[in-house]
Amino acid sequence: MATQLLTMRTLQLATRQLRSPILRHITPRRFASSEAPKLVGPMDNAFNRDRLAVKQHAAQSADLWRKLCIYVVIPAILLAGLNAKNLWDEHWEHWDHMPPLEERVQYPYMNIRNKAFPWGDGDKVREPLQIVHSWNPKVNYHRKESE
User: Fold this and answer.
1) What is residue 37's DSSP assignment?
2) Measuring CA to CA, how many Å separate 124 from each of 44, 100, 118, 131, 146?
């Protein structure tokens, strides 16, 4: 226990010394950062200065959009997905409390079929049109006239 306290105290003192202004001046904080290149001599003309300004602006804009995507868009997508999941679950909880499809009231305006559909009887769909018009037996029900 005493050795742990001694080690912790030593580390605290060492980190405090590393934070001193003298060492901070000797070792800069950002080791891998690069400053804007200095244009000297014949390279220092209006074209090169303008080009350098455009590069710096592009870097700042790219950094802004990267931060926006990470800190705004991704959380917004996650929140929207969570909201959609909650709404989906609430919707199907509502369907669990409804009577079975066969016992529901068939109103005259529901499932009107005056003529045959080009793809069949309208209840089931052949394979090529499955993507365009699908029949879901969990929610769609058509009581036949013969019943």
Assistant:
1) P
2) 75, 19, 12, 12, 18
